[in-house]
Write a sequence for this structure.
C-alpha cells in the first residue's frame, strides 16, 4: 500500500521510510526538500493521492512558543484536510510521552493541540507517544549547560533508541488504526542526571551533571515522573548500555575541558 511519511528525511523518518520500503510498501518521503510542505500546503494534495496511510514524524524548525504552535497546528490542519479529500484511511502521529503533564512547556502544549486536531477529525488514527530518544541525550545536556556544569531536574527518564521508535511506528502504520494513543519507551528507567553523566563520560566530556531541584527541562518544571511512561507502555529492545557502546565509538564527542 502507499504510505506517505511526512518528515521522511529526518532522524525517525529516514529510518521509517527504509523499514516500510523493505516491507514492500510504496513509500513517499515527504519533506520540503522533495517539494512537499505541510505548513504552506504545497504539494500535499498530490502526495496524498492514492495513499492509504499518512505518517507524521515531522518536527518544528523553530521552538519559540508561538512558532511551534503555528507549525504543528497549521501543518496538521493541512494534512487532515488533504487526507480526507484523498480518502486516506489512517493518520499516524509520532508524539511524546508526558506532554499532558508538563503544562508550562510551549512545545508540549503545541503537541497536545496537534493530537486534539487528529482526535477530532473524521480520519481513523493512531497516536504513538515516545519517550526521549537516546540520540537526543547530548542535546538535553547541551541545553542544560551553565559554564562547566549541566543542571537538570531530579527527574526520571526512560529513553528509547531511534531504531526502536522507527520499528514501532512502522508496525502501527501498517496495522489497524487504534483510534487512541499508545506509549513506547526504552526497556530501562534512569535518573536523568546519572544517565547524562554516563553519556558525557563515554564521550570524554568533562562537564559535571548535577541534579538540581530548581532546574528546568527546556524551560519547563518537572516532577520525578513527568517524563516516564505508564505501566502499559510497549518497550523497545535496545538497551542503553548496548546503544552507548556503539554510539561512543561511532560518534565520539570531544572533551569540553
Amino acid at each position: 500500500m502507499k504510505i506517505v511519511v511526512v518528515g521522511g528525511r529526518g532522524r525517525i523518518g529516514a529510518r521509517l521510510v527504509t523499514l516500510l520500503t523493505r516491507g514492500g510498501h510504496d513509500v513517499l518521503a515527504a519533506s520540503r526538500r522533495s517539494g512537499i510542505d505541510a505548513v504552506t500546503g504545497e504539494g500535499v494534495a498530490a502526495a496524498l493521492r492514492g495513499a492509504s496511510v499518512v505518517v507524521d514524524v515531522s518536527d518544528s524548525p523553530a521552538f519559540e512558543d508561538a512558532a511551534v504552535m503555528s507549525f504543528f497546528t497549521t501543518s496538521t490542519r493541512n494534512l487532515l484536510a488533504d487526507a480526507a479529500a484523498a480518502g486516506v484511511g489512517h493518520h499516524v502521529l509520532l508524539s511524546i510521552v508526558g506532554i499532558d503533564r508538563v503544562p508550562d512547556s510551549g512545545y508540549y502544549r503545541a503537541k497536545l493541540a496537534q493530537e486534539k486536531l487528529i482526535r477530532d477529525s473524521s480520519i481513523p488514527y493512531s497516536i504513538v507517544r515516545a519517550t526521549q530518544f537516546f540520540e537526543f541525550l547530548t542535546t538535553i545536556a547541551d541545553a542544560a549547560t551553565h559554564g562547566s556544569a549541566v543542571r537538570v531536574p531530579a527527574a526520571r527518564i526512560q529513553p528509547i533508541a531511534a531504531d526502536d521508535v522507527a520499528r514501532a511506528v512502522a508496525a502501527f502504520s501498517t496495522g489497524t488504526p487504534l483510534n487512541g494513543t499508545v506509549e513506547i519507551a526504552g526497556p530501562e528507567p534512569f535518573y536523568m542526571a546519572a544517565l547524562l553523566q554516563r553519556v558525557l563520560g563515554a564521550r570524554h566530556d568533562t562537564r559535571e551533571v548535577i541534579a538540581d531541584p530548581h532546574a528546568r527541562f527546556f524551560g519547563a518544571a518537572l516532577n520525578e515522573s513527568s517524563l516516564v511512561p505508564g505501566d502499559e507502555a510497549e518497550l523497545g529492545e535496545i538497551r542503553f548500555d548496548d546503544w552507548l557502546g556503539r554510539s561512543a565509538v561511532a560518534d565520539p564527542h570531544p572533551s569540553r575541558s
Summary: The longest strand covers residues 90-96.
